[in-house]
Design brief:
alpha/beta, TIM Barrel, three-stranded antiparallel beta sheet, 16 strands
Length: 372
């Protein structure tokens, strides 16, 4: 199967599409479960599949440290190793350039990290990042980029964006094209419209299979993030998928879909699941709160996941108070299921041309968090 994206419907800027890859098809909008080190935390592959997730993420930086990309390749690739035959997208290591700034040195050629595990040095260039993702057998390879922190001056953002553009061109040259596999460019430019436009134009010239919007949700706030999406999304090819990296809350997702985004990933639902926070149709609950100690209701009566079908809020409260590992497992299952449900319902609303009504109804439900 060739790699491709078919736009099936639009409601305003909101899009419903079908992404085709060698590892299967994905209906969009879609939320991708984050499996940084080859596993979605607290979840088996079967439990991830049960949430409705179609795509999982791996991370170049973390997997190159352990077990190493070469070892993953010898073990049959990331799909085989983690029991995930569906599509896998691998982050290039670009986010770690920002998040591990104290452990790296960067120049035109790439970045040298000091491992956060043992202090050993590892060099990551656009070519090496692309090679690692090939060894992992990533369905979707991301170019190496620098994620500029916020705030940054226009000059700082311009220097960073242009370096990312040069790296993207080198990443494209290093990518080994195969049927059903793709590589995404990453638009940078911080919160400056002219820089976002310059970045998008340069990347479109490279004819990537898809385009990501990076460098957002790093402290600029939702209003500015949405403003940058309104500038950037229309600059990208309509017949190729658009991926907003590292976003975000359910409200972020709905607002970003409304501005033309097709794909998302974020650690938020899994991290929240490990810290007793639940995303529900009634808003966000903290299951450690004493108000749940005798609450026999399911976490979310509208949800069909294992957590909601079989267990009460009181039981979840007990598990977290007793520090039992089942608590994070059940709540991660629910949160990922809830995110998938948001995507499924958003898609249906776009197909039916009532996306704005769907968003208004969903947001009204979140206002009931104190009473749900």
């Amino acid at each position: 199967m060739n790699f491709g994206f078919a736009l099936q419907a639009q409601d305003g800027a909101a899009r419903a599409g079908l992404l085709s890859t060698t590892h299967g098809q994905v209906e969009t909008p879609t939320f991708m479960a984050v499996g940084t080190a080859g596993t979605v935390k607290a979840m088996t592959a079967d439990s991830v599949r049960a949430t409705g997730a179609k795509v999982v993420l791996g991370n170049t930086y973390h997997l190159m440290l352990r077990p190493t990309a070469e070892r993953v390749a010898r073990l049959g690739g990331l799909h085989e190793m983690m029991d995930w035959p569906g599509p896998i997208l691998t982050d290039s290591g670009g986010f770690q350039i920002m998040s591990l700034a104290k452990l790296r040195k960067m120049d035109e050629q790439g970045v040298t990290f000091r491992s956060h595990l043992d202090g050993s040095a590892h060099h990551l260039s656009p070519e090496r990042s692309t090679q690692i993702q090939h060894l992992l057998d990533a369905t979707i390879t991301m170019v190496l980029d620098e994620c500029t922190p916020f705030p940054a001056t226009h000059e700082q953002a311009a220097v960073s964006m242009r370096l990312s553009t040069r790296w993207a061109i080198r990443s494209r040259a290093a990518f080994i094209a195969r049927p059903g596999y793709g590589q995404f460019g990453i638009v940078q430019g911080n919160v400056f419209e002219d820089l976002r436009s310059e970045s998008a134009a340069a990347l479109v010239e490279q004819d990537f299979e898809g385009y990501a919007i990076g460098g957002l949700a790093v402290g600029e706030g939702q209003a500015m993030m949405f403003a940058m999406l309104e500038v950037t999304a229309p600059l990208l090819p309509a017949q190729k998928p658009r991926y907003l990296m590292g976003v975000g809350t359910p409200d972020d997702l709905l607002g970003s879909i409304a501005r033309g985004v097709d794909m998302f990933d974020c650690v938020m639902p899994t991290r929240a699941g490990r810290t007793a926070r639940a995303f529900t149709s009634h808003g966000v609950f903290n299951l450690r709160n004493a108000r749940f100690i005798d609450d026999a209701r399911p976490l979310d009566a509208t949800c069909a996941c294992l957590c909601c079908a079989r267990h009460s809020r009181a039981y979840l409260h007990h598990l977290f108070r007793a520090q039992e590992i089942l608590g994070p497992m059940l709540l991660t299952t629910h949160n990922l299921t809830y995110y998938q449900s948001l995507m499924t319902q958003a898609r249906m609303a776009i197909l039916e041309k009532n996306y704005a009504i769907y968003c208004a109804r969903t947001r009204a439900g979140w206002e009931n968090a104190k009473h749900g």
